[in-house]
Specification:
The protein has 359 residues and is an all-alpha fold. Among the domains are: 59 residues; 144 residues, Alpha Horseshoe (Serine Threonine Protein Phosphatase 5, Tetratricopeptide repeat), CATH 1.25.40. It is 46% helix and 0% strand. Helix 3 packs antiparallel against helix 4 and helix 8 runs antiparallel to helix 9.
Length: 359
């Protein structure tokens, strides 16, 4: 069999030729230089700063001062000075002050008490020491007041009370007119406190009048006051708060009526009866002022020895039951037995004398 020769291998393929491509690369551009920001020039306006008061002296060390800022290299343009501010319109003048009450004025009338006076000469050291000692000493009553007696001193206290009220009232009106509410509150607070302070009546009207008054004539005005006083005294009211106003309000009004009779009409035929009603009111459940009550009863029989009112017996009963003065009670009970026309009071007086003396 014919043998076929193997086929020759195909010729090897030529590798593809590479094509060189040359690329031109430009060098990178340098980065852009940042532009400097343009800053607006600073314009400094002059500001007026009020001067501070000098600091109080202190032992503490002061804080170190902060270092001063370095001057700027950039020249700052100066701003024009501001125009001066217009002056405010002149205020209207205040109205003139009212005249000061005489009791508040100083020795020269127009200058208030407590105003600083310029010394006429330089004081010596011993004079200064004496003035300091007097300023720190306790106030004492002047010799003039001490020599007035009880009635004069009590009258002076009453005048001082009225002057105090007038002064505070004038001060309140002054602050109200000027709209000073802060000091007006002070004046109102002091005035309210003064009103609440109890005003002691050191002398009653019967005590001041003395024992020499006599009922000499009939006076219609005194009769009217006596009638009104009895209406207030006997008004059917209960103590506060069970009734409003309470019984005490009516009793105080009755005292005013009876006292006015003695003060304004000392020769009226109602003075003894007014003194008796004062004794009843002072010795009653509200006032319980037994010393003043027996004094009013005493004025009753002193001013009218023939009074039909039981002033002697009532005074004896207070000495017996309230003041516990047995000797005075027995004395007045004996007097009531001999002078009274009321047999019931005579019997009561005899029984109390027996109980107090055993006879």
């Amino acid at each position: 069999m014919p043998v076929e020769a193997p086929a020759a291998p195909p010729p090897p393929e030529k590798p593809p030729e590479t094509v060189k491509i040359e690329m031109r690369v430009d060098p990178p551009a340098p980065p852009p230089v940042p532009e400097k920001p343009v800053t607006a020039p600073k314009i400094e306006m002059p500001v007026e700063v009020p001067a501070l008061p000098p600091p109080p002296p202190s032992r503490m060390t002061t804080a170190p001062k902060a270092p001063a800022k370095a001057p700027s290299l950039v020249e700052t343009p100066k701003a024009p000075l501001p125009a001066p501010a217009a002056r405010p319109p002149a205020e209207e003048p205040l109205p003139p002050l009212p005249p000061m009450p005489p009791e508040l004025a100083g020795p020269r009338g127009g200058e208030p008490r407590g105003a600083l006076a310029k010394p006429s000469r330089e004081m010596r050291p011993e004079e200064i020491q004496k003035e300091l000692a007097e300023a720190q000493s306790e106030p004492v009553a002047t010799q003039n007041l001490v020599g007035m007696g009880e009635i004069g001193i009590v009258d002076e206290v009453a005048r001082a009370r009225k002057a105090y009220v007038r002064g505070l009232t004038a001060l309140k009106e002054y602050y109200t007119a000027r709209g000073n509410s802060y000091k007006l509150d002070w004046a109102n607070s002091e005035f309210d406190a003064l009103v609440k302070v109890p005003k002691i009546q050191y002398l009653g009207v019967a005590e001041i009048a003395g024992p020499e008054l006599r009922p000499l004539r009939h006076i219609d005005a005194a009769d009217k006051l006596y009638e009104e006083g009895m209406q207030y005294k006997n008004y059917p009211a209960m103590p506060y708060p069970m009734s409003d106003p309470g019984k005490d309000v009516y009793l105080k009004k009755s005292l005013e009526k009876f006292q006015t009779i003695i003060e304004k009409y000392p020769d009226s035929d109602k003075i003894a009866a007014a003194a008796f009603r004062l004794g009843e009111t002072y010795g009653g459940w509200y006032f319980n002022d037994y010393a003043r009550a027996v004094q009013c009863y005493e004025r009753c029989w002193q001013w009218d020895p023939k009074t039909p009112l039981p002033a002697v017996f009532n005074a004896a009963k207070i000495y017996d039951e309230k003041l516990k003065n047995r000797a005075k009670a027995v004395e007045l009970y004996n007097r009531a037995m001999t002078e009274s026309n009321d047999q019931d009071l005579v019997n009561q007086s005899r029984d109390r004398i027996r109980a107090l003396t055993g006879k």
